[in-house]
């Protein structure tokens, strides 16, 4: 089993949880945000759905300059509703899963660089970039999205067991 293949079970579990969260993002609250400095629910949900595409990009490249000097900065696709969100997410998950399942250990251990305007932000083995910059970062933003759901009174799905919204009334208070 390769490094990438060994990551598939965790990847699948996390993406299943993410899809449950994205499924609950209401179109009527797409432009809602909890604070002036926060992104909207639609922006955050779109970020969660699209950052999964960074995984195959990381596997298939040696570096990414997201704001190259003299060139256009990376721009995420514009997503306007939950239907588009889920379609983009599902496409990105399938591509990421394919990339993980087929990458060699030698490729996973090669250094990968993130740049901004030609300046190195970091360089590390691909496997570390995938774990930190993509998967951990993804889970962090998914957690933020669950807070948004709570604040707009949308039931939060369980991700690692039942959520408070899925618990029986007498057991929720005990936790």
How would you sum up this structure, described in words?
With 175 residues, the chain is mainly α. The radius of gyration is 18 Å and the shape is globular. The model has no long low-confidence stretch (mean pLDDT 94). 53% of the residues lie in helices and 9% in strands. 23% of the residues are buried. A hairpin with a 2-residue loop joins strand 2 and strand 3 (119-125). The chain has a 3-stranded mixed β-sheet.
Structural Rg:
18 Å
User: What CATH architecture would you give?
Assistant: Up-down Bundle
Would you list the SSEs in sequence order as H and E?
HHHHEHHEEHH
The main pleated sheet reads as: 3 strands, mixed
Distance between the termini: 39 Å
- Which structural class matches the secondary elements? mainly alpha
Helix segment tally: 8
Enter the CATH topology name: Four Helix Bundle (Hemerythrin (Met), subunit A)
User: What share of residues is helical?
Assistant: 40-55%
Q: What strand line-up does the widest sheet have? A: 1-2-3
Q: So what's the CATH class?
A: Mainly Alpha
Number of DSSP strands? 3
């Amino acid at each position: 089993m390769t490094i990438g293949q060994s990551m598939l079970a965790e990847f699948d579990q996390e993406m299943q949880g993410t899809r449950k969260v994205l499924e609950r993002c209401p179109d009527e609250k797409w432009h809602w945000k909890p604070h002036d400095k926060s992104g909207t629910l639609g922006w955050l949900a779109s970020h969660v759905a699209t950052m999964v595409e960074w995984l195959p990009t990381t596997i298939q490249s040696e570096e990414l300059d997201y704001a190259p000097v003299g060139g256009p900065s990376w721009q995420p696709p514009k997503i306007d509703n939950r239907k588009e969100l889920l379609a983009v997410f599902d496409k990105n998950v399938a591509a990421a899963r394919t990339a993980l399942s087929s990458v060699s250990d030698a490729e996973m251990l090669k250094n990968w660089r993130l740049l901004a305007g030609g300046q190195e932000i970091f360089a590390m083995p691909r496997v570390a970039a995938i774990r930190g910059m993509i998967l951990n970062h993804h889970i962090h933003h998914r957690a933020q999205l669950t807070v948004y759901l709570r604040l707009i009174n949308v039931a939060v799905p369980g991700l690692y067991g039942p959520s408070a919204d899925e618990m029986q009334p007498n057991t929720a208070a005990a936790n």
